[in-house]
Amino acid sequence: MRSSAFVEIKNAAKSFGTLQVLRDINLSVERGQIVAIIGPSGSGKSTLLRAINELDPLTSGEVWLEGVQINRQLPPRQYEKHVNQVRQNIGMVFQHFNLFPHLTVRGNITLAPRMLKGISEADANALAEEQLTKVGLLEKIDEYPSRLSGGQKQRVAIARALAMKPKVMLFDEATSALDPELVEEVNQVMKQLAEEHMTMIIVTHEMDFAASVCDRVIFMDGGVVVEEGPPSVLFKNPQEERTRNFLRKHLARNGD
Amino acid sequence: MSALLVLARKTISKGPNMDIDLILRVYPFFIEAAWVTIELSVLTTILGLTCGALGAAARLSRNVVLRAIGAVYVSVFRGTPALIQLFILYFGGPQIGINLDAFDAGVIGLGVNIGAYMTETMRGAIISVNKGQTEAARTLGMSRWETMRKVVLPQAMRMMIRPLGVNINALIKGTALVAAISVVELTYTAQRYIGSTYKPFEMFLLSGVLYMVIIYIVGHGISWLDRKARIV
Ligand SMILES: Nc1ncnc2c1ncn2[C@@H]1O[C@H](COP(=O)(O)OP(=O)(O)OP(=O)(O)O)[C@@H](O)[C@H]1O
Ligand SMILES: [Mg+2]
User: B231–A146: do the CB atoms touch at under 8 Å?
Assistant: First the structure.
């Protein structure tokens, strides 16, 4: 069964042992669409995101990207090859950056493209410069990650993901580990990607950011999608009691 | 305080004087023996690191059989005295068709033994690399092996320098065991000269000092490596 959407998740369920974390989730994302996933802690947002690139494979259900099923059932060797292939199309940005501390910024960005796409050193360097220019950090190209601020680290992590020329970008609370004054520079980079129509799925606790950047907001709770819609509707006029409760707490905490 | 001084003076004057002449006469033979200890240590380290790398790879493998082999290796060699392992190899070996001269048996026995400790050192360093590192690399599309080679190992290797230094320190001191299978190294040489001079204090002191020199130099080498490998 082929899928028409760009990213499509069908009947996704996931358990860790006896703990069921995702229950029958369906979600489709069009090319260029920007989707925010919000919800209380433990609702399964990260798990859903990590299922998309097989970091946490689903227990049942399907994940598709551009007509290719990502979580195909294959013999181990073929599965490895398949997964390594499809992951090149899916960029991921983590809460804690996960930059490689033993490599410079340049090394971080060029490692995977050089190894996986067999591009020359010169091309890889050009690629690193291009991506760093995009995130405004060209002058840090020969620094080690330990010399960067949190916001700079995250921008390098984004550049590293973009260097693989992914078709979709996944963000798992990309700004949650940052000091408040560093959040904006990362948000700016993500906004810029949005303007370039990068397809993005963004797990976030920042309602303002979700409202200003995303086309659609998904509210998850207890492993299910409780409600979804454009931010104007979901934030201003939520239909579900659980959504209203969540938003009330969150918007109050954000102080607006 | 003064009582202590008196006691010390008494002990020294009452005990036999240290025979400096004897030490000066025999020390060249001890230096020669020290080279044997060094040679033993170097070869044992090489074999130990090899066994350690293989052992760690086995213990971290996805293959159940390899994991089991690794676990048995570690528990057998860490769970029995190194001296017994040496005796089994050297004295018991011929019974099952393994005929090694004492030096080779010493290197193999000690190397395989320390390899079991090094297995755990290396495994520990590898699994202590943050899981996020592997996730980031795998997410970019790198295979398990590529991730291990380019992301995990370079970080783990820096972390294992010091603990491997501890293993090597133990190994150098452990080479004294091969005196028991008559390898003419520092400890055996001391014993031999005691047999002819009846001066155990001088002889053991001399060999002890030489062990210390070796360990001091190696210790500094390890610290230097560790500093050089520090991530900027
Ligand atoms: N590897 C794992 N093994 C066992 N349980 C897990 C694992 N990963 C997540 N869980 C559990 O699954 C549930 C959902 O976790 P998940 O990380 O997806 O939540 P989340 O919505 O991202 O929360 P947060 O906002 O705190 O990041 C939690 O109860 C969590 O404890
Ligand atoms: Mg999460």
Answer: yes
